[in-house]
Each structure stands twice: as structure tokens, then as C-alpha cells.
Amino acid sequence: MDEQAGPGVFFSNNHPAAGGAKGLGPLAEAAAAGDGAAAAGAARAQYSLPGILHFLQHEWARFEVERAQWEVERAELQAQIAFLQGERKGQENLKKDLVRRIKMLEYALKQERAKYHKLKYGTELNQGDMKPPSYDSDEGNETEVQPQQNSQLMWKQGRQLLRQYLQEVGYTDTILDVKSKRVRALLGFSSDVTDREDDKNQDSVINDSASVLDNFKFLESAAADFSDEDEDDDIDGREKSIIDTSTIVRKKVLPDSSEDRDTKEALKEFDFLVTSEEGDNDSRSAGDGTDWEKEDQCLIPEAWNVDQGVITKLKEQYKKERKGKKGVKRKTTEDLFQPLSYIKQSKQGYGRMKHQSTGPNRSKLQDMLANLRDVDELPSLQPSVGSPSRPSSSRLPEHEINRADEVEALTFPPSSGKSFIMGADEALESELGLGELAGLTVANEADSLTYDIANNKDALRKTWNPKFTLRSHFDGIRALAFHPTEPVLITASEDHTLKMWNLQKTAPAKKSTSLDVEPIYTFRAHKGPLLGHTDAVWGLAYSAAHQRLLSCSADGTLRLWNTTEVAPALSVFNDNQELGVPASVDLVSSDPSHMVASFSKGYTSIFNMETQQRILTLESNLDSTANSSCQINRVISHPTLPISITAHEDRHIKFYDNNTGKLIHSMVAHLEAVTSLAVDPNGLYLMSGSHDCSIRLWNLESKTCIQEFTFEESIHDVAFHPSKCYIASAGADALAKVFV
Amino acid sequence: MVMAEGTAVLRQNRPGAKQYIQQNIRADCSNIDKILEPPEGQDEGVWNYEHLRQFCLELDGLAVKLQSECHPDTSHKTPKECPAIDYTRHTLDGAACFLNSSKYFPSRVSIKESSVAKLGSVCRRIYRIFSHAYFYHWQIFDDYENEIFLYHQFTKFVMKYNLMSKDNLIVPILEEVQNSGSGESEA
């Protein structure tokens, strides 16, 4: 930075270095040169250099945003690819395992038959090859049973039947299908739901599929023990969280009632085993069983004892396998179609899971999980093709909030008719505006009725969660106002600035739940256009329907203004004689010609603005000795009922009836003075902020506190958004927090 | 850095650094030494940080005054000066973002070393606002300075804590000049 250059030059030279890395050096100079050349032309006068700069900056910012978006997209697509590849690999592994298991089963069966035959007939049963199945054959070979020459008809038939059923069950077919679907998915074709023709009556299953999600929450705790026992070793990038969610997807625990045809048939198959060998039970000894076990290398941990208990257990295991396999298929279709429903339904399905989990015993779990873990997936909850939005509450690591959206410089003209009025410091012009903005109001009654059902439901929601922390002010924030319709918040601070915040575009945060929002625009002018008040303005109330603005000031007056002209106030209410300094003012929602004002001495009065008369003074419990604690900090009018609510220095919140002036209700709301109040547009909730660093949400019907937030510094203002679901609080620590 | 106890105490009930600075300024804004002198046990990084925040805050006032005068269509000597008001605004916005960002300054009672290094660059940019005001809008600069002595404060501040090199201080106001004779200049 060559600051040794002359003062006249240094701005253009130092543009590259300054201005927050905007990188406009060459552009600025080019623009400056161009502007210099055209300085004389009147037609070009409109192309001011600042305007050009602004435009260039906007374009640049936009490009940056787009580029960031592209990067994000690319990363997402790459993640998707990796995920699909992993899935495919997992599918193959699963298939291999299942095939292996079948072979083992067959081998075991063969052995058993051989033994039986030997024992029964004293001769060797010639079964062809008796070697243990090789484990690395592919799917075509699992049925390499050769027809037996010397066997009894029953055995032969039994064998054939077994084979037939296994094929009918269609392990290989299924796995092939799965594979082909995967490939199609990878290539981007949408998988057809009708591919599941071998999923018989799976409709009921679909509903339960999501319940699987939470089945696995249970299982993952069981799985935690098994991770060492996993025998599969060629899985890449396997992470615990991935497994958890993957197993959630994979497995489906059907209710025991809905077994499908396949399972039933296969299980019936085992029945014949039982019946045929019932008679021979006594001839077998336990010794054989143990002997058998050693040779048995299949995953069934129990011995192949032909007794009923084992059979049932095996049946169950088979059932589970079937379901597991079905879960595989389920995944491919639902994965593409309903990725997000899993999360939603998982919560409901969890309860159902609990009672089913007592069924399988530990070894079964072992098997299932060992099987399923072999499948390597990334979270199945990836976005389906082309769905760009996903809930920000997603838990998965891939979907951390990584929107590189940056704030675009909105030009939000403050002069738009239905927007906002800024409080103005009314110090005399010759003085330095070191005062504070104490009042800021946005009220658009015409728009406040656009409150749709969705918002209603949200308003009835019980808890608000912090979402944003707005940090840009140097000094405490005194007032807040929301835009009537847009998700925009304006904050006014003791550092003499107003900042406008766009609550929808947020800069990415690291991992905190609160996101930083950059202010869009900082308003610095403080010489208000409203002339008339001679001292600080404490409060404002605006009525869009009538184009009126009410202000109350430390000079003791309340003034009514017509917002279409800046001329002198329409009317002045001079009340510093008896009521003190008006600290807060509001328009009465139920009667447009009335306003309610509260004073520092503890009185609250309703005035008729047209007759300029004070209508009535709301009942207040004052005695001369308690004057200092009676200051009323805020008064608001209920949006629908003829009630005024006041916030007091003595920690109370009081409710008054506008017609009679009587005190309806009074409650101690906080530990210290109550500084601010806000009512939600529906009139159901009240929010109060206080010097005790907390804000509280109250149910207006029951007058009970339903939620409380605590901060580090005292709260100066609170606000509800008139049409969207936001609330905001302004603190003395220069932070504004937004809750959803 | 023996600031743990000091700042812990500061956090609780005693006024923080910010309040302390503002108090001193309000008491007497021409007593620059008092304003710049940190209280005992105050961490220097935090002190600098809080001072910078205060400078930005008060510079907003200058920017407001400037913006009435510094328009694109008022006649300047060269068109290159017109972006000055935008530069001022951008600098102040950028400084606000930077000083408030939780990434660089996660805590107000302890400052990271890496962020301390960046304070110097913020000072340089802010200095340019002063120098532009001095050279092109001298009257405004003078009035403002007589009121709150901001430039004097700032210059002494950067000198004291070595945030900028002396060569950068091009505004010819001697640091030794305490009183409001800010119009003196040495050729």
C-alpha cells in the first residue's frame, strides 16, 4: 500500500487493498478513466462513478455467489457419485454373502443327510461332491447340487424341493435386480416401482419402511459391540454414522404378522425336515451335534440340531434375512423417491420398534448386523435428483449447512409506502446527533391480516429456537422493527446507525446453530425529517391505513403527523403538565381514532386523536411515595381486543380494559424492570423483555409464561414479525437475536 | 498476559473496557491521554479492539457530515475523489463486520493473536477517511475535530500502540498539539 502517494491519488490506488477485498482496482481505474473522459457530457452525467462502482460490485458479488453455488453443486454431485458407488459395492458384498450362506446351508444339509443316511442305513450316501462350498463363486453356482444317484426318492425330492424353493425365492434374481437398479440410478434413470414384482404384497411394508429408520437407532447400540467382529474387509470409507443410517434404511422389521409368501414357503420347507426326522430324534445324540458344529462354518451359531427350537430359530433368521433383502430393494426405490420422509417418519416409527426388538436374540442380531454392515452406504438421505432444498434440520454430515449464499446487496428503498418509518433523533441541527434512537415502529395494519394457517400452526408451537445472531452494531441496540411482509429486520442502535438485515440469506456459519447475518444496508443519517420535537423521540406508532404517525418525545409532547407531507405536525398533545413525559405511545387497534400513551410518572391515558381530548386515564395504582418505581416503559395495544398492556419499571405487566379503564390483570413478569413488550399478530402471545437479561413468552389467555430465554445483557426491545414466524430481541450487548 | 483476572472482574459488575472508554470520552473528550490510558490489568489487545470499535462508532458521525458535502455532482478537482464517500462507507461497513465478526473476535474479553495483527490494517483504512476529510473537506473536519477530537485521539492511539508507521500519517497535524488548534499545519 503506497500511502506515500499524494492524497489525491491514493483512493484509486488503494482501492484494491481496501474495501474488504473487493478486487476492483483495475476496474475502478478503468471506470475512473472512462468517467473522466465523459465528465463533460450531460448525457453521461447519470453514469456516476459511484454508480458504476456499485454496479460492478454487485455483478462481481453475484458472480461470486454463483460460483460458490456451482462449487457446492459439484461437491454434492461428487458426493452422490461416491455414495452410489459405495452402495453398489455394498450390494455386491451382500449378494456374495447371501450366496455364501446358501451354500453353507446346502452343505450343511448335505452333511446332515449323509449322517442320517449312514446311521440309518449303514451305508454312505453318495451325494456327489461333499466338499465345503467354495466361497468365491458367483451367483450362478450356488445350486451346484448334482442329482443323487443312490438316494431315496424322498431325499431326492426333498433336495429338489429345497433347491427349487431357494431359486423361487430368487436370491440371485433379486440381487441381480438390485444391481441393475443401482446401475440405472447411477446413470440417472429413474427406477421403476414396478420392478418390484417379486416383492409380493409389500404395500404394508412401505409404511413401515420408515420405521426401520429408528429400528436401527436401537440396533446401532447393539451394533456397537459387533463392529470388531465384522469379517468383511473391503469396505471403503465406512463411518459409524454412515452405518447407522444405512442400516436404518436397509433393515425393515415387519410386524410379525405380515409375512409374505416367500417366507412362508421357505419356512414350510423346513417343516418337512422336522416331520421326517421326528422319528429319529432319539437316535441322535448330542455328541453328533457338537461334532457337527465344528465342521459347520456357516453363520448360524447354533448347531444344526434337528430339534424344534433350532428350527424355529432358523426360521426366524431366514425371515429376517428375507426382510433384510427386501429392505435392500426397498431402498433403491424409496431412496430415489422419498428421501426426506425417512427423517420425518423415523420419529414416529421409533415407538413401534421397541416392542419388536425383543424378538431376535443376540446372535440373530449379530448375524443380521454383520450381514448388513457389509453393505457400504452413505446416508441414504441424499437429495433425489433435482430437489434442491432440504430442511436445515438434517442431521447428516453431508448436509451441513453449506450454502455459500452471500448477502446480495438489496436495494430496499426506505421510501416504499408500506414499509417503515425510522425514529429520528430530534436534537437541534446544530448539535451533534449523539442521541439515541429510542423508538422505532413498523405497523402496517392493512397487511396484518394476511396471516395464513401455516403461521397459525407455528404460532401455536410451543417453543422458539434461536436462529440468528446479528452482530454488527457497535453499541447497544435500542429498537427493532420487522418489515410487514418480508423477512427483513431493522435494528436501531446507540451507535447512531440503523441496520437492515435480510433474514433469508445467511452467511454460512461453522457449526453453531445461530447464523450470522450480514446487514444489508447501514443507515447512518440521523437528522430526521420530522421537525417539531425539541428533544429525543421516545416512541413512534404508525398507521398505514391512515398514513399517520404518532410520536412521543422527551419534550413532553405527543405529535400526530401526516406522513405524506413533512410539514408541521397535524396536532400536538401537550401533556407535560400533569402526566409527565410520555415514554411510549401506541395506536389503539380496536379504535382507529384513539391512541394510548404512557407516561413516566406512571399514568396511562387514552386520547382521541380527532378531538384532541383525553378520553380516559387508565386506572393506575399510584401513591405519592412510590413514584420512582412507577415509570411505564412501554404500552402496546392488543391487536384484536380492546386491551392495553403496559410494561413497568416495577417489574409488572398490567392489562387494562380500554373501555372502562379498569385494571384487568397485573403480574410480576420479571426480576427487574420490564423494558419492552410485543404482541404477536394473532393476539395469542405476549413477549416481554427486561433488564434482567431475559425475555419471556406469555400465553395471553392463561397469562402464564410458556418460554423464557436468557441472555448476557439486558434486553431493550422485542418484536414479532407481522406475518412470518420470527421473533427478535435487541440487547444492550449490541446483539440482536432472531428466533424461529 | 495477565488479563484473566482483570477481565474476569471486568466482566462481572465493573464497567467493561467499552464503558470505561465511553465514560472517559464523555467526561472530557480533549483529554486524550486519559482516554487512551488503559486501566490496570487491562489486556492490551482488548483495549485496542475496544478503542477501534469506538473510533468506528464516532467516525460514523463524520461520515454523515461528509455525505452531505461529498457528492458525485459536487465539483471536485478530480473525479477520482468521488468514490471517497463510498470508500468511507465501505470501510466503515467492513470494519464493522470485521470487528463484530465472531470468527475473528469470538470474545470481547480476550483477543486472538492473529486478529490483533489485522487491527493494523483496519487502522490504515480508517486513517484514509481522516486524511480525505482533512484534505478535501477541511471545514467539516475542523468542526468535527473541535467537538470530539477524534483525529487526535486516533493518531495518538495508533502511535502509542504501533498500529501504523509514522510515515503513513500524512495529515500535517502535530501529535504534540493538544488543544483545538487543529488548523495548524506545517508545510
Keywords:
heterodimer; A: 740 residues; 5-stranded mixed β-sheet; elongated; B: mainly alpha; Butyryl-CoA Dehydrogenase, subunit A, domain 3; 61% helix; disordered C terminus
Can you offer a commentary on this structure?
The complex is a heterodimer of chains A (740) and B (187). By secondary structure, chain A is α+β, with helices and mostly antiparallel strands. Chain A is 34% helix and 19% strand. In chain A, strand 24 and strand 25 form a beta hairpin. The longest helix of chain A has 73 residues. About 36% of the residues of chain A have low confidence. Helix content of chain B is 61%, strand content 0%. By secondary structure, chain B is mainly α. Chain B starts with a helix and ends in a 27-residue tail after the last helix. Chain B is built from 8 helices and no strands. Chain B has a domain of 124 residues: Butyryl-CoA Dehydrogenase, subunit A, domain 3. The N terminus and C terminus of chain B are likely disordered. In chain B, helix 2 packs across helix 4, helix 4 runs antiparallel to helix 5 and helix 4 packs parallel to helix 6. At the A-B interface, helix 1, helix 2 and helix 3 of A face helix 4, helix 5 and helix 6 of B.
